[in-house]
Amino acid sequence: MTEPSEPQNPVERADEGAELPEGPQTAQSRPTMTVDVNLATDEEKHRDHPPIRWRELLSLLLLVVLSDLTIYRTEGFAGPAALFVIAPLLIWFGAPRRVISFSVFVVTTLLLIAAAKLLWSGSGLLVICGLTLLFAFAMSLTGQVPYMLEICLFTAQTLVAGNRGLSYYGDRFRERSDSTRGTRWMNIVMPSAAALMFGSIFLLANPDLVAAFSERMQNVVLSLKRWLHGFSTWEIVFWCVSLWISVGLLRPIVSRATRKEAAVDQPAKERAPLYSPFRNTLLTVIGLFGVYLAFEFRTLWFREFPDGFYYSGYAHEGAAWLTLALGLATIVLSLIFRVQTLSDPRLGWLKKLAWVWSLENSLLAVTVYHRLMIYVGFNGMTRMRVVGFLGITCVAIGFALVVWKIIHHQRFTWLMRRQLWTVAGAVFVYAVLPVDMLVHTYNVRRILAGDPAPSVQISVHPITNDGYIVLTPLLKSGNEIIREGVRAMLAARMGSLEQTFIKQNSLGWTALQYGDHKAREQLVLIEPDFETYYDPTLREQALDRFHEYSYQWY
Q1: Does residue 274 contact residue 341 with C-beta atoms inside 8 Å?
Q2: Is the pLDDT of residue 252 over 70?
Q3: pLDDT one-digit tens code per residue, 231-245
């Protein structure tokens, strides 16, 4: 029996808000079959998800294990270093969708640099940089450009994406378990998983069984035994969080590539209402900056500074205030050249004023560098002076970006993204540089050249272990107080390095710091030169003399 060509009863509208086609309906235009609403909803729910592959599940398992070893159970910075090298490979291996882009290569290179520095001499700041780069790597695999604000949004969405991905796994697992497909491998996997899960629980519940099992398996199980003794409930919570975030990294919600940035469309020529205030503002700051620059060059350039000169006020605090002035100039110039201003027919005159002010700001940046060099010339380099140089460089680059924005009519979003990149780049550079080695290489050269003032930076500031390597030339210094003070410092550091070496060996590979081992090797070679100061009394006397002598340049 065949169905009638037309229904016997009128068909009711399924959606009151839907529009029906006008005119009489033919048999072809009317529905001839029903739709399963539940199936349509499931299809809609999963249509954006790529299929689950075995490599994705393996990658998730390895990411959880890697996170446990290199984060939860790490004893030092070598653990995060391994994470930043291996995790990108696992994310690349397990990602259902991958886009090869220039950003992927850049972020990968930065991760390798961060990992190398963590192996040499790690810091908490560098770990934060590495984690940020790890999220940036996963973001780059989706085809997006890892701008800083977008990285923050991508990091936040991993929590939601992880929940979404786990739900998808659960739905697919239920579908697979309800079907006949996959029965063969499920016959093996499910019993094995059940035996492993309950067997592990029973093993953990009986310390005697743990001990007996460890003795039989010898070296391999000795490692497992140490792991079992350190096991806690919080580690299970950490596993769950690691799995959640890993799923979010492999299956992010944000999958579209960032739209290509475009310059501002040129609107019709129209007079800007604030053109006159902007012009007057530029004329005012040009005059003010010109007068100040003349004063700056006259008072602080090409002169000898007398005894008692206020170096801190001029070269330290003063440089900070001038850096603030440069930052404010960047903001003012960016606010002046908005879309309305760029459409003004008198824009050419305003741009000429902007170029004059930009030249003055360039000279102001030079004066800030000069003030910092005055301070360095007085008593040497420090970590904070490195920060100062990086800070003024960030501001100078930021101002150059504003000028570029004006010339090429770029949007404010374009500017902000690159400003944040500049700041993040400066932070990363500071984190990966061997700052103490560079700083004290400069100070040691000054001292050996006959200028004892930088010795104050060696005496009063903490120095990392790798920084002590570059102090050894001072053992030949002609200044007895500095020479004996450095000998006492090396003797004190040798004792702490021995303790560090023993501790790192007992804690395992995650505590390895190659910079510490290198410093210890160097000091062992010259140990006869300072072993006299293993005596605590002699050491304290030499350090006190050194500190009192060098403090005159503080």
Answers
A1: yes
A2: yes
A3: 677 888 888 899 999
Beta-carbon contacts of residue 121 (< 8 Å; ≥ 6 apart): 77, 434, 464, 465, 466, 513, 514, 515, 516
The rounded distance, in Å, linking the Cα atoms of 107 and 137 is 6
Entry pTM: 0.78
Q: Which residues contact 40 (CB under 8 A, 6 or more apart)?
A: none
Q: If pLDDT is split at 50, 70 and 90, which confidence band does 316 have? A: low
Identify which has the larger pLDDT, 504 or 208.
504
Name the amino acid, one letter, at 456.
Answer: V
**What's the pLDDT band for 256 if we cut at 50, 70, 90?**
low
Choice between 512 and 222, residue whose per-residue pLDDT is larger: 512
Q: Which two tokens stand for residue 301?
A: 């350039």
For 300, the token pair is: 């602080």
Among residues 256, 56, 244, which one has the least CA distance to residue 164?
244
Nearest to 256 by CA among 163, 133, 154, 338: 154
Which tokens sit at 501? 């070496």
Q: CA gyration radius for the chain? A: 33
- Which are the contacts of 88, defined by CB distance < 8 A and separation ≥ 6? 108, 111, 134, 137
Distance CA 165, CA 244 (A): 9
H/E run at residue 227: helix 207-229
Q: Whole-angstrom Cα distance, residue 109 to residue 123?
A: 19
Rounded distance between C-alpha atoms, residue 482 and residue 478, angstroms: 8
431 in Cβ contact with 124 (< 8 Å): no
Query: Taking the C-alpha atoms of 119, 123, 126 and 127 in order, what is their torsion angle to the nearest 10 degrees?
Result: 80
Phi, psi of 527 (to 5 degrees): -55, -35
d(CA 393, CA 159): 36
Q: With 80 as the cut, is the pLDDT of residue 539 above it?
A: yes
Rounded distance between C-alpha atoms, residue 79 and residue 63, angstroms: 13
| Among candidate residues 363, 344, 392, 222, the one with its CA nearest the CA of residue 286 | 363
At residue 13, the pLDDT reads: 44
Q: Answer yes or no: are the C-beta atoms of 212 and 130 closer than 8 Å.
A: no
Per-residue CA distances from 194 to 186, 239, 257 (Å): 12, 19, 42
Q: What is the CB neighbour count within 10 angstroms for residue 127?
A: 21
396, 326 Cβ separation under 8 angstroms: yes
Strands (E), 19-148: none
* Closest alpha carbon to 144 in 254, 261, 50, 263: 254
List the structure tokens of 143. 């085809």
Pick the closest to residue 451 from 469, 477, 473 (CA basis). Answer: 477
